[in-house]
Amino acid sequence: MTRVKICGVTDSTDRDAVVTAGADAVGVIHGVPVDTPREVDAATAEKLADGVPPFVTSVLVTMPTTVQEAVRRVDRIEPDAVQVHDGLSPAELGALDSRITQDIVAVVEADAPAIESYATHADALLVDSVDADGGGGTGETHDWERTRDLVDSLDVPIVLAGGLTPENVADAVETVEPFAVDVASGVESAGGTKDHDAVSRFVRNAKQAAEGAV
Ligand SMILES: O=C(O)c1ccccc1NCC(=O)[C@H](O)[C@H](O)COP(=O)(O)O
After folding, report:
1. Residue to substitute in 29, 129, 168 for testing ligand 1 pocket (most ligand atoms within 8 angstroms of CB)
2. To which H or E segment does residue 138 belong?
3. Element (H, E) at 145
4. Distance, CA 194 to ligand 1 centroid (Å)?
5. Which of 91-96's residues contact partners 24+ apart within 8 Å by CB, and which partners?
6. Would the CB of 31 count as within 6 Å of ligand 1?
7. Is 186 touching ligand 1 by the criterion CB < 6 Å?
8. Domains of the chain: residue spans and CATH
9. Measured distance CA(30)–CA(41) in Å, rounded
10. Rounded to whole angstroms, how far apart are CA atoms 118 and 106?
């Protein structure tokens, strides 16, 4: 079974549509020093996370520069998990882990050095296509075979992200067999607004492909 995270919801209508579509996780982006239409302020992030129902995981996606900053955001927004995009070293992720109860998803690039050291300090790795400023949401795919190697070689759950769409997600799941897939821009009608039909097709195609891959 491959889980699905839909990232970058900016309002409650999109959040509820993502849940209705059967996604396993909802990503809320707050505290990123890059220009993105998917970022929301702290109060909105708090409300969006609070409205995610039981048995679906709310994920705060953030780019902290210090452990303290990450702790402050997690304590304010109270997500079920935090996805750290850039900014913290493996040792700092370890320090963060000792200060929060939430699971930590560390973002890495597929060809980054020392991925294993992130794996020892995170509950999951999200392998993404990252832009020059370290941000995600690029809409760009990367070398799926490299991510497949990580799935085979590391014990930690691997989440595949970057450039996924309803059209290519089945192929991605069959190639990589990840723990989960993640999408932001590939299911939008405009920047920061989800296309509900595309969200449903993405979830359906990912899960059907996972069943076929067993
Ligand atoms: O989506 C963003 O705009 C973003 C900006 C800064 C940091 C992280 C961001 N997104 C995090 C995600 O988990 C995205 O789903 C992931 O990067 C995949 O994006 P896409 O290629 O658009 O599907």
Report:
1. 29
2. none
3. helix 144-153
4. 13
5. 91/121, 92/66, 92/67, 93/118, 93/121, 93/122, 94/120, 94/121, 95/67, 96/67, 96/70, 96/71
6. no
7. yes
8. 3-210 (3.20.20.70)
9. 6
10. 7
In DSSP terms, 59 is beta-bridged to 27, 81
pLDDT in tens, 84-138: 998 899 999 999 999 999 999 999 998 888 898 999 999 999 999 988 888 899 9
Our measurement of the distance from residue 194's CA atom to the centroid of its chain's CA atoms, rounded to an integer in Å, reads 15
Q: Is residue 183 lining ligand 1, measured as CB closer than 6 Å?
A: yes
Q: How many residues does the chain have?
A: 214
Question: What angle is formed at CA 63 by the lines to CA 61 and CA 64, rounded to 5 degrees?
Answer: 120
Give the C-alpha separation, 203 to 192, whole Å.
18
The tokens for 35 are 């220009």
In the block, tokens 């909802």 appear at 26
Q: Largest Cα–Cα distance of the chain, in whole Å?
A: 44
Is the reported ipTM for this assembly greater than 0.90?
A: yes
The answer to pTM > 0.90 is yes
Which residue carries 């392998």 as its tokens?
A: 127
Which residues does 59 contact at the CB level (< 8 Å), separation at least 6? 5, 7, 25, 26, 27, 28, 79, 80, 81, 82, 83, 105
Closest CA to 146 of 178, 123, 169: 178
